[in-house]
Amino acid sequence: MSLAGIVFGVGFFISTQAQLSGYQELFIETILGTDGAIRIEDRIQDANVFVAASTTKNTSTNFFITDKNNRRFVEGIEHPDNVIEAISELENFEAASPVIKGSIQLQSPLRKDNGQVYGIMVDEHIAVSALEDQIQLGSIEDFRGAPTGIIMGHKMAARLDVTVGDSIIIRAVDQQRRYRITAIFETGVSDIDKTRVFMHLSAARSLLKKPHGVSFIQVSIYDRDHAMVDAEAIERVAKHFSAPWQEREKSWMQLFKTLQISAAITVSTIIIISGLGMFSTLFMIVMDKTREIAILRSMGYTRNDISNIFLWQGVIVLICGTILGCGMGYLITFAISYLPMPLSGIFATEYFVVNSTAWHYVQAVIAAIIIVMIACFAPSRKAGKLVPGDVIRGTAA
Known about the structure:
By secondary structure, the protein is an alpha+beta fold.
């Protein structure tokens, strides 16, 4: 029973961690594919604080200091080309895309809806996002060749009851213009799919009456885990506020981490129950084999030798249990990855998403080792403390 508990505990530990890690990885890829690894936004204006310092009794010196936490921001990026040129020297920099963003109202023959327009340069934006792969209907080439073309989220298209090739009216800043839908995309993120509309940067400038500057710059980098360090470097180099994906999605990442810890604790209870069973079994064996232990002590076995006999019983069960459990975890993870599980909301997937790593196996084995060794320690220590004379007299406790 103890062996079976360790096998199932280790197997389920690995499979649950692989599932949670898989969904977390899919969420990160979705975020990077829609909003980029780093977003450069408003220009930073440092606020200088005036300080008067007395140097002598009758004289004083005035100076200024900069308070990092008291920064002011100027909305938008006035010279995006200069910013991109400055950050392109960073080692981890891959590509950048300037974007103009604004609120709009869309009207189809049947209804109206509100949304957000994103004015982009096609090639630059494809380099920093997964937009081309997210297109369901139409193509990026159709959009590239249509100056008045737009790319719309599939949920917005469904609400407006339009499809590729249809024309709609877009209103913004007291003007309205007609655009043709050249493609429909799906990211799996509901808030994006029902509000976001892409159009060419020049068309967005004209519609929103923004002849110069952009709202933000979307940046992709080679090593996504280095985004926070790169964002700090960008702020120093470009003097613009930079938001790495870890900060933008901090609450979601904390949620995934909490779920992983919770699942690990829950599944570990199976191993803990197995450890309690092993403790009871070994303790009963010690009580039942007191005479045999006394004989071994009389033959010259030391206390450590007796303790090691019972410890090795636990080690053998542990080794067999972890090997079989790792195999079971692999099989469960492999089987789950082919189970259908349609899901959309914060990401889109049709199957269970798994991401099994060696660290999941290491965590499961470490948990099993700690629990089993604690369970074996007390019985083995008690066996080593038995005195042959007490056993013969029947006074051993």
